[in-house]
Amino acid sequence: xxxxxxxxxxxxxxxxxxxxxxxxxxxxxxxxxxxxxxxxxxxxxxxxxxxxxxxxxxxxxxxxxxxxxxxxxxxxxxxxxxxxxxxxxxxxxxxxxxxxxxxxxxxxxxxxxxxxxxxxxxxxxxxxxxxxxxxxxxxxxxxxxxxxxxxxxxxxxxxxxxxxxxxxxxxxxxxxxxxxxxxxxxxxxxxxxxxxxxxxxxxxxxxxxxxxxxxxxxxxxxxxxxxxxxxxxxxxxxxxxxxxxxxxxxxxxxxxxxxxxxxxxxxxxxxxxxxxxxxxxxxxxxxxxxxxxxxxxxxxxxxxxxxxxxxxxxxxxxxxxxxxxxxxxxxxxxxxxxxxxxxxxxxxxxxxxxxxxxxxxxxxxxxxxxxxxxxxxxxxxxxxxxxxxxxxxxxxxxxxxxxxxxxxxxxxxxxxxxxxxxxxxxxxxxxxxxxxxxxxxxxxxxxxxxxxxxxxxxxxxxxxxxxxxxxxxxxxxxxxxxxxxxxxxxxxxxxxxxxxxxxxxxxxxxxxxxxxxxxxxxxxxxxxxxxxxxxxxxxxxxxxxxxxxxxxxxxxxxxxxxxxxxxxxxxxxxxxxxxxxxxxxxxxxxxxxxxxxxxxxxxxxxxxxxxxxxxxxxxxxxxxxxxxxxxxxxxxxxxxxxxxxxxxxxxxxxxxxxxxxxxxxxxxxxxxxxxxxxxxxxxxxxxxxxxxxxxxxxxxxxxxxxxxxxxxxxxxxxxxxxxxxxxxxxxxxxxxxxxxxxxxxxxxxxxxxxxxxxxxxxxxxxxxxxxxxxxxxxxxxxxxxxxxxxxxxxxxxxxxxxxxxxxxxxxxxxxxxxxxxxxxxxxxxxxxxxxxxxxxxxxxxxxxxxxxxxxxxxxxxxxxxxxx
Length: 868
Hints:
disordered C terminus; alpha+beta; six-stranded antiparallel β-sheet; 23 strands
């Protein structure tokens, strides 16, 4: 009976520890809850808290629900029991609050108990649902109170305190159970974790040893590569010995030198270093063949200086043996003086070293085998690839290839190109000799070919000509190579059919000849220009010579070769021609600014980015056009001058005629009146009028001869011209005591000597004639400055000068500023005409009473001529 009661109060135990823990918590809390609720039922009945027994029945129902939940838990349905307890408890709490005072009832605190239970038993989702429902009920109670829909009761303070005490006990019990449960769980977890860590540490140490041995054995079995194997051996061994410092050393094949192959930690800086066998720890181990344990390396007699500086303290070294032959040693060290190696570690590392030795030996053998296999495989692959390439080249190549035996000239094989080029049939030609195929017409020539191929092993014939089986002539580039095929000496013959190229070459030569003839007949120079302005091609012209050799401008930009104005014109025409695919033309003169030679350029596109420019010399046409325009202007000037001349002559010749006619009438009167003195005077006046007319006619005749009657032009010093002219007017100069100064370094001029003397003579005579009353008359002849490439000469006097308003008319025909002076007024007109015939200009500067200066230019050589 007692056991049954004990079992009734004892929580069930399950195989799942977590499940058992939750069942224990629920049983403990449920019995506390039953106790509290059993206390509340009689207390409420005694105190008469409620007028109705409904709350009491609800509490009793909650007790029944808890007992049912316990039975569900005993059957193992923990989660279902949790859901039943949480949701049914929430409903009963809500019903109690609804029946009582709603928001003001103590039952509302039951929601806290329900939410705490839900958070421990069912997780955050159920907590969210219960919490949300609780908030909805609370706000519903609040609205009912606000609208006065929920009647309020005046609870007995004792009853209120009783209910509050029960809830308080339940909350405290729940918190205690939760906290104590968590504490037990944490304590149990800590103890379990500590034990597990200890067990794992032991297992890990054993596993590390086993893993190291296992990996070393796998390295032996798998025959892994040597370098990764060495790295793995050192890494595993260092992990086992709990050190960062380890090294593998190998003996040289002659057993005289030890080299560190791989080291980590403090040994790493010695990688690749060597020392004699028998020296140091490794040398001692390799010499004796026994392991060595040193716990104080700094005081060991055989310590090496560089290792002492490295801070090595405790050290072990184990020999690596393969079939009793030492191949090296493996060593480890501690740098911490508190740590020492033990004999047990040495024993384990000897076993480890035995496996490592076998693994290293196997890896070396494996690498050698793999290297040999790779080399053999590479050779086989290369051979297969070579055979495959040769087969493809042989069959697919457009070059005709055939193989013949050297001994009997029998055709062994040939590709498709050979059959197509030769016209032979594969089925019938294979196996026949070249003589049977009539491939060689001259037997002596064939024997000579065989002798040459045997001596040279290779023959190249770029101009091989033969006839096909259909008697069609063919041209080919032939190459013959001597080769060994299946133990037989053969000739590999290759023929590149160039018959079509030969025909094209002939056609090209004929086309080039035609084009050369066309280009040689063209007067144009042809340039090829790309869109960037680079000169890429040039065809010379017989009539135009480039300014520089083609090698100096081909490949250069036209902007760097031509003046800016011409290069801009050219690039604009190139761009327009490429864009519109139409012809564009422009003209330009050379050199810019002087334009003494003219060209016409025609630009046309010949490709997407290239244009051709044809340049033609049009200087002759330009000169003809210029001469025509000059002649037209000259003719217009002559006509205007002729009109002025006609008017002037008719006016100036009329005066003497009127004088003669008038005095002829006076002569008649004088004869009738017998007035001899008056008769003589009238005759003299008639004579003077005829003399004046004669002078005018002579001057006009002289003016007309200028430009029509031209003496031979020659180079003459202007000093001689000036001196001769001054000599001719010496009488007038002496009459006024005038002094003439001639500049000594006057240049040489080119012209008609007699006419130039006449110019200076007229200008000096005029200067002397209009000297006035100057007591010191002076005339200066000199040269000062250049105008249009011609020297400027001047004749200066200190005479009466010329009024400014008369300067424009002094060179006019018969224009005399002083009618009382001698002369006809045509002298300066003659001077101007002579200067213009010599391609010069004349002008005057003067001020009244300050003298005059006549300036004129003369050429110093023949006019420029350009020969095309």
